[in-house]
Each structure stands twice: as structure tokens, then as C-alpha cells.
Amino acid sequence: MDWGLILTVMLGGLAVLLLIGLPVAFAFIVVTTVGAYFVLGGERGILQLARNATQSVANFQLAPIPLFILMGEILFQTGVAHRAIDAIERVVTRIPGRMSVVTIFGGTIFAALSGSTIANTAMLGSTLLPGMLKKGYHPSMAMGPIMASGAIAMLIPPSALAVLVGSLAGISIAGLLVAGVIPALLLAFLFVAYVVGRSMLDPSVAPPDTLEQMTLKERWTPFVIYVLPLSALFAVVIGSLLLGFATPTESAALGSLTAVLIGAAYRSLSWAKLGAALMETLKLSVMILFIIAASQTFAQVLSFSGATNGLINMINSFEPTPLIVLLGIIAILLFLGCFIDQVSMLMVTVPVFVPLAKAMEINELVLGVVYLLTMEIGLLTPPFGLLLFVMRGVAPPEIRMRDIYAAVSPFLLIKLFVLGLIVVLPELGTWLPGLMGR
Amino acid sequence: QEVTLRAVSAFNLDTTFSREFQAFVGWINENGKGTVQIDLIGGPEAVPPFELGNAVQSGVVDMANNTAAFYPNLVPTGDAIHLAENTVQEQRENGCYAVIDRIHQEQMNVKYLAHAGDGIGFHLYLTKPVEGPDLSGLTIRTTPVYQAMFSALGANLVRTAPGEVYSALERGAIDGYGWPSQGVLDLGWDEQTKYRVDPSFYNVDVNLLVNLDVWNGLTDAQRAKLEEGAAWMEALNANNAEINTAEYAKQAEAGIETITFDAAGAEKWLTTARDAGWAAVEVVDKPLAQELRACLSK
Amino acid sequence: MIGVFFDRSLWMLAALSAGILGVIAVIIAINVVLRNLGLPVIYGALDAIQYALMIATFMGAPWVLAKGGHVKVDLLTASLAPVARARLSRVTNLIGAASAAVLGWYGVQAALASAARGSMIRTSFVIPEWWMLSFVPASLILCVIVFLRKIVHPDVADATPNGL
Ligand code: NA
Ligand code: NA
């Protein structure tokens, strides 16, 4: 069968099924099963699909996903995260769009404590969203910064996805982990600039709130008690990575156990809370891993049909300058990011893009950062964006999916801007790793 | 008439262990016009490596480029192939090829069409030096290929996901890993590797398998063309000595030093490799292991 | 009655899966400590954890589905009138049940074929392959029941996802 037809039918079918509200994983299962029947040769193709599904999540490299979620959930269930956010809120004063700025600060700090964009977004959403909506913040000023800064967790170490990109693409993992830091901080800065600017132009989107009068001590004491000790967690996760006694997966496991210890130290831990943290971890992990299982098999069928290669070859046929190739890579990644998960994006494209980039002498760290940023954008682009769904999960029922899409769009533009900046100024990604020296 | 076979490789295309296979595909598509053509679908992105054996068995793909270590669920004695000390040409002469082909046909429903990898040995790669064939105190990443041997030499074994090997080396979570003489630079592991231990042991086995129903359905002319291509591909194995030399030079350039054992050390190294390897196959099927050992040894 | 028993069973499978995730964290941490003390690590941990991840995913999935926790896109459905929405929801649940039934059926066939062949998984341990192949179909069969129940009792299906 013609790959163009298969691509159209599979993506079109997926879009329709998603639109009528079938759970994402099952929408993938439907089109993948039908695709496997036609592409993999009838019944034996579906038998093979069932086997592939077993293999797809039996993958050690996915272990950091539940572990980093568990870390966040423990901080969340024990109330440690909430108190930390409250403490941050006290010390951020007198700035337009104050709560949105708090969100971005909190999101960036937690990005360095958690490798899961999902846990980060869920935590920010559940702690800050209700208060912001109550204070009369426009939904876009409330949800946009949550999703946008929640996604930063992918760029700042610890980052499970950075590790995955590095290993699949053969890029230095330590280098790539460090390469994400400057773009992440730049993003956070631009987000703050945007919310402050917008709140100044239109104060109604972020009504100024009257803060209680507090002494300097009252203002900073909670910060010292509830935020500074979290640097222990930071030290365990990033320290174990940098000082070199643990691999990323191991630092994730150590991090979740340290989170348990921190919860215990605040006397906030109980068996019930630990159980609740584990059940919530399961819920989120299953949600992600089940989609990964379904969409990986989807990517396999798509690739088997020749659609993946056909699409990439088509783009390649317009080349060849390195800049055009890089832009082509970005375009394909952004396009794929609309429909499939980050792991599948990697799986499908790395075999073609990495040799292509090498032949074109595109810097490997630039390619790596481009992967990270496009994957991060993919988390936020409809119709399939994991963080959009997480936001849906924590938002009140009256918030519609289209409100969420609208809320995230200005931040998507900022992310695209930074992505463009990396293309023009590769040093943003390569400068910091260059200082490490091998 | 012309038939087109759909083929998948267990290894990324354009990397070391797809090299001979892709050359074979090129040769067939060049010389088999009007008889047989091969549609190379892709690598692990199309079929997961550990499922490729099942896919060629059931006919989801017609042809697979695969290593026996990826299908032990189907041919559990396949580990014997990498223990061979003779070449596939010699195995075709002495009848061993026929035995291996038979077990593939019986147990896996595939024709064992061709074999690449002769002359690509396996090495131990390390981040710290060793004196002799004693691995006690070292934590080594293994796959089933090295498990029996490294364990017999006293290593502390771990299983590490391929994507974690780089950072595990970097962080000292592992002190080394087993890998063939070629392909270390494909993975970027050279950045974190300081030593390669010589001599090499075993031989890489990369096998070209054809679904048996498809094979039996081909005309004599089509089968003959594929076998001609197989012989042409197997002749490429002779280039491996030269490729190894180039690869070792590249490894040295990347800062990997060579540790060469003395005669006694090398003897113990290779004997342990051989005995531990065959003992593991004997556990699965003793009579077959003995039959294979007799014809795969020098 | 049967409904309560079914829910309890789904919850127990989920609790078991959640426990598995906790054990994964502990085992990995134990291995780090053992290694840094220069002691031998738990050898089969990698393979065990790979399969444990798969088991937790598929054994937890029916419970997540019953809780309405699998992500959906409500771009269109949210804008429909209640009657139309209920009708569409019946259709999507039917599609969900059918797809899970088809893939589940072939999953059973794959497991049976593997058992008949006597295929063994040979990593750091040796176990029958069909054991691991059984989790996907088992999960999908439970999902079929959950979808069918949502058709019969739409009120259960309308539970809003929360607590992420
Ligand atoms: Na992070
Ligand atoms: Na997306």
C-alpha cells in the first residue's frame, strides 16, 4: 500500500477517535490494530502487535518515569511541596502578575528537583491553580505559566528524557544534561517578562492582591524552613549524578527515598500518605506508560509501512544546506510532536536524523538541545500533548480543553522563539558543556 | 518471475552489524532483477529487536538480519554459533552449517541463509586496568553472550540497559563491558573507555534468516540467486581482519589503550571463554551441544 | 454485588502494581548502596525491573480506566448537549471495548502459541515466555469489562478525572 495513504488513514483515524473522546491509549490501539492488519500482514500482524506491546514498556530506561513521579508525589502528599510553594509566594512581592511569577519561580526550582514534567505540572497545578482562579486571574495567566514552567523540568537536570536522547542519539549525556540549563533559564526569564508585561498592559488578567503586612522575619522564616532543606534533595539527585556515584535511574530511586526521609523529617509522613503517593504515582505512570506502549507500537507500524521514511525522504528531497536540514528536522519533530509521545518521536527519527546531522556537520549538542526543545514543545501542542492532559486532570471541570490550548499558546510562541534562537546562536546550548572539559 | 521479499534488520541501518546485510541487499537488487528483489524496510524502529525472531518465524517479515542472542526463546542453542572457531565456509564444508540450518528450520521455521561476523571477535573493555585473566572485584556489564565466561573469571556481573551504559561507565557504576571489536565508536562508549583487553574471544554471529514458508514457495532460480548472494556476502567476512585493524587504530586514537595478556594469561582467557560458553549450551541441550562443538571447533 | 467484587479486584491489582513501583525504587537504591560498599549487586535486578514495569503498567491500567483516569481529548465532547454527549460516550465506549477485545483475543493467541512451543525467556533468569505474554491480554480483557460497564452504567463513566 502507498505510504501516503497509510499515513493519512492512520493519522486521520487517530484524530477522529481522539476528537470523539476515546481515551488516547485506546485511540492508538484502534488505529495500530487496524494498521497492523493491513501493514504487517493480517492476523499474524495483530499477533505480533500483542507481543510488541509487552516488549514496549519492559524497558529499564523507562524506570525513571515512575521514580521521578514518586519523588514529586511524596513531596506533594506530605504537604512539603505546598508549604514550599507557599513560602516562595511570601517572598515574591510587589510584582505585576505576582502569582504567575511565583508559578514560574516554583516551576523552575522544582524542575531541578524533579525529572518529570508531568509531576512538576501536576504539582504546580494542584497547589497554585485554585488560588489563582479564586483571586480572579484570567485562566490563561493561571494555566499557561503552570504548563510552560512545568515543562522546563525536561531541560534542567535531573531529566529522564535528556538521558534518553543522549543515549539513543549517541550524544554525551553529561554534556546534554548541562546543555539544557541555559535555554531553560532563558525560557523562565522570558516567561516572567511576558507575564509581567501582560499584567502591566492589562491589570484585569492578574488582579493585584493585597498582601498582609509582615515583618522581614515573618516573610523569610517559612522560606528557610520549607524551601532551603529541599536543597538536600537537590544535592542527592544532582549531586549523585555529578559526583558520580549513581546513574540517572539510580539517582531517581535515591531521590524518591530521600523525599520519603524529608517527609519523615517534617513529621508529615504516614503509611496512609505513602500509600496515597504510591497510588497516585501508579495512576500517572500507568497513564504515561500505557500511552507509550500504545504509541510505540503505533510508531513501529508507521515505520514498517514506509510512511516514516517516506515522509522524511520527502523533506530531505528539498535540502541540502545544513541550516535547511536543521530546520527540516525541527519541522518534522514539531509535526510529530503534535501526534505522538516523546519516546516515540525519538524512536522514529533518531535512526535517520543522527546520521543526517552528522553528514551535515551539525553540532551534536545543538541537535540534542533541538530534540529536547521540540519534545518539550510537543508536550504542549494539541491534539496530543501530555501536559495539556495533565492540566485537564487538575483543572476544575468548567475549564474546557480549548481554554487550555488557548492558555498555553503565548508560551508556545516563546518556546518557538528560543528554539529559533538556538538555531541562530548555537552557543546557547554548546557554551556551558564546553566549560566542563573532558 | 520476480518476487520481492520484505526484510528488517535487528540493528540500526548504516551501523556495523547491518553492514554486510545491506551489502547483500544491494547485491541482490543489482543482480537479481527479474528474479528476486529485497525491500529493506528498516531496523529496530520497525520491529523491536527481541521480537524480530518471532516476526520472521510467523511471516510478518520475509527476511531478517538478526543475531542468535536476540532469539533464544526460539532457538535456545543458538548461543553455540558465536562459539565457532571455524568460518562459515568451513562449516558449509564439514556439514555443521546443515546442522545449524536444520535446528533453525525445525525450531524457528526459518531458513538459515547466510552468516556474517566471522573474524569479528569480542573484547572486554574497561575503565581500569587488569593484570591478568582475573576479573574479581570488577563490576562488568554483561549480556547473555559473556555471562558464563565473565562469571567464571570472578567478575561481579550487572545487566545494564544499552542506553545507560555510557553514564554507568562515566559514574563508575560499571568498570567495563563486553563488546565486539567493531562498533564501540558507533555507540560513543569510547569516550568513557580506557582499555581494551586482547586477545578477543568468540565470533560475532549475524545471521540472515528467511521465513521457511516463503523460502519453500520460491522457485529454484530465486533460491539459487539468494544462495549466490549469500555466498558473496559470506566472502565479505574475509575483510574483517582489515576492518578490525582500522577499528583498533580508531579506538587508539580515541584514547583506548590495549592490555595484551601474556601467553599463559591468554590461554586461560580463551580456555575459560570456550569451556564456560559450551557449558552454558550443554545445560540447554547436551547431545546437540556436543554435536555442534565437534564441528565448530578447530 | 458482582460490581463491588469487580471494583475491589481492580483496586487490589492496582495496589499490587503501586507496591511494585515502590519495590523498584527500593531495589535500585539497595543496588547503589551495595555497589558503593564494594559488595556484589542483585544480579537479575535489571531484567526483573523491566518486567515489573510492564506488569505494573498493564495490571494498573483497568483500575485507571475505571476511575476515568486515562487521558482523553474533550475538545468536541465538552461542547455537546448532555443527550448527544451520552450517546457519543456510548459509541466511544463500544469502540474501546471492541478494540480491547480484538487485541486481547490476539494476545491470548500469542500467549497460547508461545506456551505450546515451550518458548522460554532466557535473560538472567529462565522463565516461560507465556507468563509475561499473559499480562497484556489479561489487562485488555479487564478493560473490555470496564468499557461494557460504562455503557450499561453511564454514571460511572462520567466521573471526572481528578487527583493527578
Ligand atoms: Na528536571
Ligand atoms: Na503535542
TrEMBL record, chain A:
The chain crosses the membrane at residues 6-39, 60-81, 101-125, 146-165, 171-196, 223-246, 252-269, 281-303, 323-353, 365-391, 411-432. Residues 11-428 form the TRAP C4-dicarboxylate transport system permease DctM subunit domain. Signal peptide: none annotated. The keyword Metal-binding does not apply. It holds the Pfam family DctM. InterPro entries: DctM, TRAP_DctM. GO terms for molecular function: transmembrane transporter activity. GO terms for cellular component: plasma membrane. Keywords: Cell inner membrane, Cell membrane, Membrane, Transmembrane, Transmembrane helix, Transport. The complex comprises the extracytoplasmic solute receptor protein and the two transmembrane proteins. Belongs to the TRAP transporter large permease family. Part of the tripartite ATP-independent periplasmic (TRAP) transport system. This is TRAP transporter large permease protein. It comes from Sulfitobacter geojensis. The lineage of its organism: Bacteria, Pseudomonadati, Pseudomonadota, Alphaproteobacteria, Rhodobacterales.
UniProtKB/TrEMBL annotation, chain C:
It is a multi-pass membrane protein. Residues 24-153 form the Tripartite ATP-independent periplasmic transporters DctQ component domain. It holds the Pfam family DctQ. It comes from Sulfitobacter geojensis. It is found in: Cell inner membrane. This is TRAP transporter small permease protein. Belongs to the TRAP transporter small permease family. The keyword Protease does not apply. The complex comprises the extracytoplasmic solute receptor protein and the two transmembrane proteins. Keywords: Cell inner membrane, Cell membrane, Membrane, Transmembrane, Transmembrane helix, Transport. GO terms for cellular component: plasma membrane.
